[in-house]
Amino acid sequence: MNFTQLLPSPSDIQCALVSTLSTYLSRRKVSNTIIRPQEDFDIDPITGFLPPEALPRLPAEYQIWEEALSEAPEVLRLSNDMSDAALALREEGETWRMEIRSRPTLEVNLLKDNPRLLQRAHVVLTWLVQYYVHSLPSPHPPTPKRIPASLAVPLVNVSRMLGIAPILTFADTITWNWELIRPDQPATIDNMKLAHNFSGTDDERHFYQVQAAVELHGTQVLRIIDDFYRIPNLDDLTSVFKVVKDLTRLTAVIEEISELIQSMRSACDPHVFYWDIRPWEGGSDSKGPSHPGWIYEGVDPSAPELQYLSGPSGGQSVVMHALDLFLDIDHKLQTRRHPGPSVENKRADRGFMERMRRYMLGKHRAYLEQIENSPRSIRELAQHTAVLREPYNNAVKALKSLRTLHMRIACLYVINMSKTANPRSVCPVAVMMERQANTMEARGRDEKRDPIRGTGGTDLVTLLKAGRDATARAVLEK
Ligand code: HEM
């Protein structure tokens, strides 16, 4: 028997394809979709969400901010750093903070027409706030940390103009935190060096650089997404095969991003991350709801922006959000999918990813809204087009594996480290006592079910598992 006779002919395939697609397209009432170009959203074709050039320094009127930031790493240490070197700096640190408190509250209108200068002002002011708050000795019992008006007022004003939260964000530590090594060469990861580094360690440099590499790699994701929305008609074979090819490429890009995340381990020591880097990044709610938060002096306490004062998180990476929205990952559990969410999934902070969007540049958030509101959905298309189902599922499975790997990294760097002692404690005996206290606290936490929190103050294990499970639920049945 000639087996080829049993196979559908190319024209049969085309007919079947066109018929399923037309059902889908007529239901969606779209044959093509008009989208705004990425330039409208401050997305560069080469560097994506990173600006194509390093941010310029602020003009002379704001030199006092730039100077305070240059001086900060020389004189400030974490308030719980009891090493001799840190104690020797205590007086200079207090002088630095006193000067910040006594500085005038500068107007920022001068910057309003220059987005790059506004971004630089956001970087400088947010880094100053973190230096100020986390070097300030903490009284017992803890009281709210007061951010002086000289920082708080201009920061809130600059943030309003950019449409971003008035606190250190992923943009301030990753997207905008670099300079070119060779200014005459293009912005590639090998030609970038960190502009600011709290701990002064190579570990911190690596921590930011890996995440910057993910964002740069993400430009390929953006191109694939853009191409999908720009295909004029999806009801012909050439277009469908283009989508197959792009989904296959997307799977490879997600796997490459996983490799980048995995490379964190090669040069960022978990102890250094947990004890020397992470404490600088905590936001107003990083210690949980029972701890007093921050007060922005001179700012109306009911200002809506002040609801968004969590520290920076990978959850603010625009690339990761774009991937989730494109593949239609349902973090909010709004759709009925199989298998249903576990009890633990339902307990997770379902609004986390949406809230994290407030920590992005307004224009980048608008780009995500464009994906979200597009009437064209790759998942629905794959549901109705057999040939797309496997490539779509492969991309989703790659994203699920990325989240499983990321969970392992978060456990290694946060959960495991929370059971160790702070190496900057007073003396070896105190270190031993602190280690014992931490172990007991961890046990007590297990008993009371008080969770380890992420920089955003959320129960991180439940959150990360829920994200992974939500991703797995996007897989389509064959
Ligand atoms: C040492 C490396 C890392 C650690 C310790 C870490 C830790 C965490 C923690 C604790 C969270 C919980 C949410 C919160 O911030 O409060 C989180 C969320 C997240 N992180 Fe990371 N992270 C690391 C690297 C990365 C990298 C390189 C990326 C890639 C951009 C990334 C992307 C994300 C995303 C997208 C979330 C939101 C939750 C989710 O989508 O599953 N992280 N991370």
Automatic annotation (TrEMBL):
Pfam families: IDO (PF01231). One of its GO terms (cellular component) is cytoplasm. The keyword Metal-binding applies. Heme b binds at residue 406. Keywords: Heme, Iron, Metal-binding. One of its GO terms (biological process) is L-tryptophan catabolic process to kynurenine. GO terms for molecular function: heme binding; indoleamine 2,3-dioxygenase activity; metal ion binding. Belongs to the indoleamine 2,3-dioxygenase family. This is Indoleamine 2,3-dioxygenase. The lineage of its organism: Eukaryota, Fungi, Dikarya, Basidiomycota, Agaricomycotina.
